[in-house]
Design goal:
By secondary structure, the chain is an alpha/beta fold. It folds into 2 domains: about 160 residues, Vaccinia Virus protein VP39 (Rossmann fold, 3-Layer(aba) Sandwich); about 90 residues, no CATH class. Helices cover about 30% and strands about 30% of the residues. The protein has 10 helices and 15 strands. The strands form 3 sheets. A 7-stranded mixed β-sheet has the order 11-2-1-12-13-14-15. α6 packs across α7. It starts with 7 loop residues before the first helix and ends with a helix. The relative contact order is 0.15.
């Protein structure tokens, strides 16, 4: 297994779970930072990325037990797992629903030599050709890699032809279903750290909190965290307000809402709010400089 460019078929194998924890962290960081989604964002993850926020938040948690938590846009899910471990170490009984827009994926394995990691939207996320891992993007810090660009065009064309010839695979991939034959296998996975998928305190849910109906979660959660998602680099103010109001409807009375953004220096700027009697958020505490959309949240 290559530490620099881990392959999906290796990350989601039984052998990976048996590795030392430090090695698992390193492999996962290198794997997810190379996964570019269709919207050109990455599933970048770092070990202990929100450790300081987890520690501060212990002072503001509601007293209800088990604590019902919603963690939105969890990406690789590693920070969710670390938060759950922190709560357990402090004797706090809890249940976490971790959501993300891109959770379901499939490894399409051909002749046991070619493995293509594909999202449920049929967008290829990683190419693994005879053991050589090729990222699904051609733009780098030095500009466009022309050789990789041409190579990816060829791969994508071949994959489209494969789907056209075998149309049932399109539906199997979208449904995250398994399939196996002599030459082709579809291996459904959840595109998070394998350790997260194994944690009994965390339930994973692929959901778009902006457009999907979430009324079945109304007033269900004591704590909601939105880390590295609610910021002006991703959404304009109108969209941010819609998401904030959607999430507010899911909080119990006196529920806690946490919004955080990690900057390029790996410093966390977060704001912790409580939902007051008049259905308005009250600011409880800031970590660093606080979140950049603090005023939007207070006026929502």
């Amino acid at each position: 297994m290559s530490i620099e460019k881990p392959r999906a078929i290796e990350i989601y194998s039984k052998n990976f779970i048996g590795l030392d924890e430090k090695l698992q962290n390193l492999y996962e960081e290198n794997f997810f930072k190379e996964i570019q989604l269709k919207n050109e964002t990455y599933k970048t993850t770092y070990h202990e990325r929100l450790k300081d926020l987890d520690k501060v938040l212990l002072n503001f948690l509601p007293k209800e037990r088990p604590l019902k938590i919603l963690d939105v846009a969890v990406s690789s899910g590693l920070t969710t797992l670390e938060w759950s471990n922190s709560l357990s170490k402090n004797g706090i009984e809890h249940e976490i629903i971790a959501t993300d827009l891109n959770l379901k994926a499939t490894i399409v394995s051909c002749f046991k030599k070619v493995h293509i990691l594909v999202g449920s939207n049929l967008f290829p996320l990683q190419w693994d050709i005879w053991g050589k891992c090729i990222p699904n993007y051609s733009k780098t810090s030095q500009g466009r890699n022309l050789k990789r660009f041409i190579l990816l065009l060829i791969f994508q064309l071949l994959f489209k032809i494969f789907i056209i010839i075998n149309p049932r695979f399109k539906y199997l991939i979208r449904d995250n279903a398994s399939y196996s034959s002599k030459y082709i296998a579809l291996i459904p996975i959840l595109l998070v750290s394998p350790r997260v998928a194994m944690c009994k305190k965390i339930k994973l849910l692929e959901q778009d909190l902006l457009y999907q109906d979430i009324s079945n979660f109304n007033r269900k959660f004591h704590v909601i965290r939105a880390a590295n998602i609610l910021n002006k680099a991703y959404f304009d103010d109108n969209v941010l307000l819609k998401i904030i109001r959607n999430l507010k409807s899911l909080l119990t009375k006196d529920g806690v809402f946490v919004v955080c953004r990690t900057n390029e220096q790996q410093e966390n700027n977060a704001s912790i709010f409580r939902l007051g009697e008049t259905n308005k958020f009250l600011l409880l505490h800031r970590v660093g400089n606080g979140c950049e959309i603090e005023n939007l949240i207070l006026n929502s």
